[in-house]
Amino acid sequence: MADLAAIKPTAKPPVIDLVREAGVDVSDWSNYKGASPSKNPKYCYNWSFQKPGELVVALLFHEDLTIVGDDIVHDQNIRLRDGRLGGKGAAQWRKRSDELDANLQLAYRDGLPIRAIILDGAKRDHLDAESESSEVEKRYLDPEPWAVARYNMDTGDCVIVRGALPTSATDADDPEVEGFEGETRRLYILHRRREASIRRKKIQAALYENGGVLKCEVPRCGFDFVARYGEIGKEFAHVHHLKPLSEAPQEGRPILLKDLAIVCPNCHAMIHRGGQCRPLEELIPL
To answer: Terminal CA-to-CA distance of the chain, rounded, Å?
Structure first.
């Protein structure tokens, strides 16, 4: 049973210690003329941090957490839109909000886990221009990983769930997930997360080889997201495993760029329809 009281902070360690404990490099905090790296204003007031390609650290107020079913969730839109925030410190708030929003997008897009630093104290009312700055009284690094379960790129509506397994935005509608259940599915998603970097390298390699154009590699398709959708389609595509993942051992296997192909979601769905893994060259009839 989810228990909010169990993750309410009871002490106030420095932010730098919690960020370091989460696994983020804090060596640059020392590039500060003040007495202590922990008070470096470039970092100590931020709402989020990241370890590139591995995890995101997000600072979440305990009062913003709720219980949904058996889960503890943070269901808050943290974007400060339409000039809703004014008064003292508004520019700094907006900057930190934008950085947190960008890191949550990153976590959702690339399937990165969230390490949550839970805060307790008086939270500023961003709808009130005269409201005082937030006053954090206690903080705590939750040992349980969180994950972005849903994220709306247009509105910023975001749901972060404690204990959830992170999946990437493209994994969410990826037909290669079908057929994996229970523990096997969990291992599969963990394997996909470990190989996220090579998936990104495949996209970058395809862009380089094709002069900045990313097209579906299925013969007689060639769908180009940028040509169809403009900027929103930039660097988007599914990455298909030419060797079926269902045949891989539980511990995973080495993945090379030549083992992957850039495909559009339509072709990807047809490749795997009926639980098969059809050769690319046979997918679209002559």
So the answer is: 57
Task: Identify the three-state secondary structure at position 204.
Answer: helix
CA distance 107 to 159: 12
- Same structural domain, 194 and 141: no
pLDDT band at 30 (very low <50, low <70, confident <90, very high): very high
Tell me the whole-structure pTM to 2 decimals. 0.65
> Structure tokens of 9?
């902070």
Query: Rounded to whole angstroms, how far apart are CA atoms 165 and 99?
Result: 23
Q: Which amino acid belongs to residue 230? A: G
Give, in order, the Cα–Cα distances in Å from 245 to each of 30, 35, 101, 187: 45, 53, 33, 11
In tens, the pLDDT along 143-185 reads: 999 999 888 877 888 999 999 877 666 565 666 655 555 555 5
Based on the fold, state whether residues 100 and 33 are members of the same structural domain: yes
The 3-class secondary structure across 152-163, one letter per residue, is CCCCCCEEEEEC
Which one, of 208, 193, 180, lies nearest residue 272 by Cα?
A: 180
Helix segments in 43-124, DSSP class H: 90-110
| Structure tokens that stand for 55 in this block | 């995890």
Reference 19, options 140, 160, 166; nearest CA is 140
Q: Are residues 153 and 203 in the same domain?
A: no
Q: Which of 162, 186, 202 is the last residue of a domain?
A: 162
DSSP letter for each residue of 33-56? SSS-GGG-TTTTT-SEEEETTTEE
Contact (Cβ atoms closer than 8 angstroms) between residue 56 and residue 101: no
Token pair 């850039």 in the structure block, residue: 262
Residue 271, Cβ neighbours under 10 Å: how many? 23
